[in-house]
UniProtKB/TrEMBL annotation:
Organism: Cutaneotrichosporon spelunceum
Predominant location: mitochondrion
Protein name (database record): Deacetylase sirtuin-type domain-containing protein
Active site location: 121
Alphabetized Pfam families for the sequence: SIR2 (PF02146)
Alphabetical list of PANTHER family matching this protein: NAD-DEPENDENT PROTEIN DEACYLASE SIRTUIN-5, MITOCHONDRIAL-RELATED
Assigned GO CC terms: mitochondrion; nucleus
Alphabetized InterPro entries for the sequence: DHS-like_NAD/FAD-binding_dom, NAD-dep_sirtuin_deacylases, Sirtuin, Sirtuin_cat_small_dom_sf, Sirtuin_class_III, Ssirtuin_cat_dom
Alphabetically ordered keywords of this record: Metal-binding, Mitochondrion, NAD, Transferase, Transit peptide, Zinc
Membership in a protein family: Belongs to the sirtuin family. Class I subfamily.
Domain of life: Eukaryota
GO MF: histone deacetylase activity, NAD-dependent; metal ion binding; NAD+ binding; protein-malonyllysine demalonylase activity; protein-succinyllysine desuccinylase activity
Compartment(s) of residence: Mitochondrion
Length: 286
């Protein structure tokens, strides 16, 4: 049966090379919202509609408030047992590579070795210049708030209350560009989040490295964790694996065994509780 944990354990024990593709559902039980479904609305905007260069060009203050809130939230939560289990798998299995679409830093904070982690969509804590001709970048900036104009995203909240910023009935003051941080190198662009927005290219050197890893030998298992698998190229890795006959193992609240081919597995539930159990033969008890 494709949701048989003992059968999966037998496959895992034999596996020499494992690829994971992770998404927002992995961080859900840490308390971070996903992009689609119930958690996908920010004020009255679809989260995905704010993740574009056009949205930033139109109203950088609004987009910065959205990302400042996400930075603030990510800094305030902890990695969960799913992140810890994947970090332990990396430490125990040199043939494991984890691709994450998440930009929240929780893999790193769980101790995932950097060499076995690729950030497909960048990081909330990297800052870049909005000017495409400028190469300024700053890594791991955890300032919260990033500047006084963005303080509403980091305001303290009393127990049982909601951040005012999140209430669509509370009108936002427009933040002029002069109050947002500017690039210290070219001095013309604005600082922007170091994440990949819709319509932007992923880092091709990173992608080439991932392709090289995939073609370096047979991949025994592709773990697809907490992602709706609708954004490419992330979604393409499982498709590629399926066509190569690799066992695809889905861990998702909505996992559906009816979509499994022979050799695939689907485990429905919270990634934070399922991953430690699924990976136990290699990582031991957490
Ligand atoms: P989505 O919000 O599209 O999907 C989250 C998935 O996680 C859904 O399939 C949920 O069923 C599942 N899920 C929710 N809670 C879970 C839990 N506790 N345990 C396991 N699964 C759970 O998020 P992503 O697939 O990550 O890109 O979205 C992909 C990309 O779209 C994001 O990286 C972002 C977004 O736009 C960019 O911003 C470029």
């Amino acid at each position: 049966m494709s949701s048989d944990i003992a059968a999966f354990h037998a496959v895992l024990r034999r596996a020499k090379r494992i690829l994971a593709v992770c998404g927002a559902g992995l961080s859900a039980s840490s308390g971070l919202p996903t992009f689609r479904g119930a958690g996908g609305l920010w004020r009255n905007y679809e989260s995905t509609s704010l993740a574009t260069p056009q949205a930033f060009a139109r109203d950088p203050g609004l987009v910065w408030l959205f990302y400042s809130y996400r930075r603030h939230m990510a800094l305030g939560v902890s990695p969960n047992d799913g992140h810890l289990a994947l970090a332990k798998l990396a430490a125990s299995q040199p043939g494991f590579l984890c691709l994450t679409q998440n930009v929240d830093n929780l893999h790193e904070r769980a101790g995932h070795p950097e060499g076995q982690l690729r950030h497909l969509h960048g990081s909330l804590f990297d800052l870049k210049c909005s000017n495409a001709r400028c190469d300024w970048i700053e890594h791991n900036n955890q300032a919260d708030p990033l500047c006084p104009a963005l303080a509403p995203a980091s305001a303290p909240v009393q127990a049982g209350q909601k951040l005012r910023l999140l209430d669509p009935a509370h009108k936002l003051d427009h933040i002029p560009e002069s109050e947002l941080p500017h690039c210290p190198k070219c001095r013309t662009g604005l600082k922007r989040p170091g994440v990949v927005w819709f319509g932007e290219q992923l880092d091709h050197r990173m992608l080439a490295g991932v392709d090289a890893w995939i073609h370096d030998g047979p991949v025994d298992i592709v773990l697809v964790v907490g992602t709706s698998s609708v954004v490419y190229p992330a979604a393409g890795y499982a498709e590629l694996a399926r066509s190569a006959g690799t066992s695809v193992v889905t861990v998702n609240l909505d996992a559906d065994t009816s979509e499994c081919r022979q050799g695939d597995f689907a485990f429905a539930g919270d990634a934070a509780s399922l991953l430690p159990e699924l990976l136990e033969p290699v990582i031991g008890k957490l």
